[in-house]
Structures are given as C-alpha cells and as structure tokens.
Amino acid sequence: MRSKVNYTRLALVGVGTAGTMAVIHVYQQHAWWSGQRGPFHIVNDWDYALNIDKVGHFYGATLISNLFSSSLQWAGVEKKRAMIYGAMLGSIFGLYVEFEDGFATDWGFSPGDAMGNILGAWYPVAQHYVPFLRNFNFKWSYIPTTQLKTGKKKIFIDDHEGQTMWLSISISNFLPEKIEKFYPDFLNIAIGYGVRDLDGLGGGKREFYIALDYNLEKLPGDGWFWNLIKKNLNYIHLPAPTLRLTPKVAFWGFFFSKKI
Predict the structure, then answer these.
(1) CA distances to 74, 106, 150, 230 from 58, in Å
(2) How many helices (H) does the chain have, and how many strands (E)?
(3) Are the C-beta atoms of 111 and 207 separated by less than 8 Å?
(4) What are 54-98's pLDDT values in tens digits?
(5) Fewer CB atoms < 10 Å away: N or C end of the chain?
(6) In this structure, is the dihedral angle defined by the CA atoms of residues 165, 170, 174 and 179, taken in order, positive or negative?
(7) CA distances from 78 to 8, 82, 231 (A)
(8) Angstrom distance (rounded) from CA 115 to CA 146
C-alpha cells in the first residue's frame, strides 16, 4: 500500500534541509575554507589521522542519510523510497563538502573521504536489504581536547584525538537459542577505535577498545516520534565498562571517551 505524501510537511522538510545546509556551509566556510581558494586538486590522505577521519566520514554520512530518510517518511514518503532518497541526499551533501575541500589550498579533494561518505550514506539501505547487517551499527563518543579549547582545532569534527568510534554488535542474535532467551537483548558488545599523539605527518598511536554497549532502540514504548528519538540516541555510545587493548591494557568501569 503506497503512503500518501503530505506536501505541507514535504515543503517543511525541503525548507529545513536547505536552511540547515546553508548554516553548515557558512560554518564550514569560516572553519575550513576561509581565506584559501585555489585550483581544484586531489589529495590522497590515507595516512591522515591514522584513518579515524575515514571512519568518521562513514559514521557522519550514515547519520545524515538516516536523518533525511526519517524526515521524508514523516512527510509521507514510502519507507523504501525515503531510504533511497536519503542515501542520495547524504551522498550529494558529502561530495559537495569534498569538492569544496578540493578548492582549499590547505586541504584537497580526498578520494578516501568521498568513499567513506558514499558507503556510509548507503549503509542504511544495505541494512534494509541485507538483514544480517542490522547486527552491526556505528556509534560515536567524544570529549573535547585541550587543542579544541585553546583554538588549535577550529571545529570538533577535526578534534580527532577526543573522539572514539565504535562498532556496536548485537550479540544476542549470535547466541545459541538456549542462551539467547536468557540474554538481555539490549546489551551489545562494542569495538572502539581512537587515536592520540597525532603529529600531522601520519604518526601517532592507535587505541582499540572492547566495551559493553546499549541498544537504545530496545527501550520500552512505541510511536513514531519516540522511535525516532531512540533511533537517533542510539548513534551515541554511552558510558560503559571498557577494556583498552592497545597500546597498553587498561580497564574502566565507566568509560565514555578519551580525555586529553
């Protein structure tokens, strides 16, 4: 059964999207592109920030794609179509930022970033058509570092050392049936990745973590708006018992992200 589009809501989504993109453009113009324009150029920055920025591009594009998709569904667009449109809009937005970087003298168009943007934007679509992928979701945690507070980093997106990227795994779906029925289905395992001591030349330290994680979409209650809140909150890894595996083993009973 095809849903009925509410054109008033659809117009609001369009205006809201255009306004948000304009605000983001102005913000990024001041943070990244101000005072630097030159010929378009490509930079293969696979060694930049030990690749945590690539994971961040994937995560951010997934989040943006889902926001577009949810907004279109709210306007009455059928779910599958909304997901496709959301992925397309997420890809376009990510590529727009990369092309702008291509004209910035200090940056450049990054094929790796562009790939992360496209793969991340289409990941929700892949999860829809390949149910197995729904067991793997990306999350983020962040505490501002002294570099951001002192102005050495202009925007939190560049504050890589304060970020931890997480892959949350729905363990309950992999357990034997006899064990699964006793296991709390909201309790996941997350694999984390962070960096520190970046030198801007490809050097630094990688940090890997394993932690408990919570599937907030399993919170009780239903309804379109409440489900939307749960879904978006689920993009954040909440504090939980955590074991750091590298570069030095450590354990925290209540860990959110690194504090540098």
Answers:
(1) 24, 22, 28, 21
(2) 7, 6
(3) no
(4) 999 999 999 999 999 999 999 999 999 999 999 999 999 999 889
(5) N
(6) positive
(7) 16, 6, 18
(8) 30
